[in-house]
Amino acid sequence: MHPVFDFISDFQPDQVVLGGDISDFGSVSTWLADQSRHLDGGIVKDDFKAMHKEILDPLQEAAGKKCRKIYLEGNHCYR
Description:
Blueprint (H helix, E strand, L loop, with lengths): L1 H10 L3 E4 L22 H23 L4 E4 L8
Parallel strand pairs: 1-2
């Protein structure tokens, strides 16, 4: 994602659209082989923190506070 954040930082758009599924949230996936992790609150929290660290925080830094961020829902949002 670094090239994308570099572009956003250079271009400084007025708005950025996130096209959904910015995180997989594998901790609550019904497709996991290890279902013992299903709905483990600590793991869900880790997924959320990772999404912020890897996507949302760098996006905020690259785009700036004045840039409008539009979040579209993806199918992983319903997990």
